[in-house]
Amino acid sequence: MEMISSKLFFFSTLCLLYAFSHATDIHYCDKKADYDVEVKGVQISPDPIARGQPATFSIAATTGKALSGGKLLIDVSYFGWHIHSETHDLCGETSCPVSVGDFVIAHSQILPGFTPPGSYSLKMKMYDGNKHELTCIQFGFDIGFGSSVADS
């Protein structure tokens, strides 16, 4: 049974690494900071995002300390203009407690059909339960011209 479990872990790790090898480019907010959570990659599906359709952002990360909870603060900009902010409970986006090692944060939502197509940037800050900043990343994503609620 232990051999099957280790093979399953190895296979799932390979799948995760393959998916994130085709991931979006990320940048840390402060290149000199020593964040407690290291982000390995961001996968966006579909890419580009289709208006009025579900979109999923999956963030592969690793931590050197266990996390019992926290918050994610997300800011979205469109051509450099801040257009949207939202806050999420860390435990609503990943399984808690987060153990030392690798974990994935996944968030899905449907963007309104009237969302303008184009290039966007997203900034995500992660805080622990004591409001200590664990990481801060930025990355770009595109919303395509196709699909909207009106097209259905």
UniProtKB/TrEMBL annotation:
<comment type="subunit">
    <text>Monomer.</text>
</comment>
<keyword id="KW-0732">Signal</keyword>
<dbReference type="Pfam" id="PF02221">
    <property type="entry name" value="E1_DerP2_DerF2"/>
</dbReference>
<comment type="function">
    <text>Catalyzes the intermembrane transfer of phosphatidylglycerol and phosphatidylinositol.</text>
</comment>
<dbReference type="InterPro" id="IPR039670">
    <property type="entry name" value="NPC2-like"/>
</dbReference>
<dbReference type="InterPro" id="IPR033917">
    <property type="entry name" value="ML_PG-PI_TP"/>
</dbReference>
<dbReference type="InterPro" id="IPR014756">
    <property type="entry name" value="Ig_E-set"/>
</dbReference>
<feature type="domain" description="MD-2-related lipid-recognition">
    <location>
        <begin position="26"/>
        <end position="141"/>
    </location>
</feature>
<dbReference type="GO" id="GO:0032934">
    <property type="term" value="F:sterol binding"/>
</dbReference>
<dbReference type="GO" id="GO:0032366">
    <property type="term" value="P:intracellular sterol transport"/>
</dbReference>
<protein>
    <submittedName>
        <fullName>Phosphatidylglycerol/phosphatidylinositol transfer protein DDB_G0282179</fullName>
    </submittedName>
</protein>
<keyword id="KW-0813">Transport</keyword>
<keyword id="KW-0445">Lipid transport</keyword>
<feature type="signal peptide">
    <location>
        <begin position="1"/>
        <end position="23"/>
    </location>
</feature>
<comment type="similarity">
    <text>Belongs to the NPC2 family.</text>
</comment>
<dbReference type="InterPro" id="IPR003172">
    <property type="entry name" value="ML_dom"/>
</dbReference>
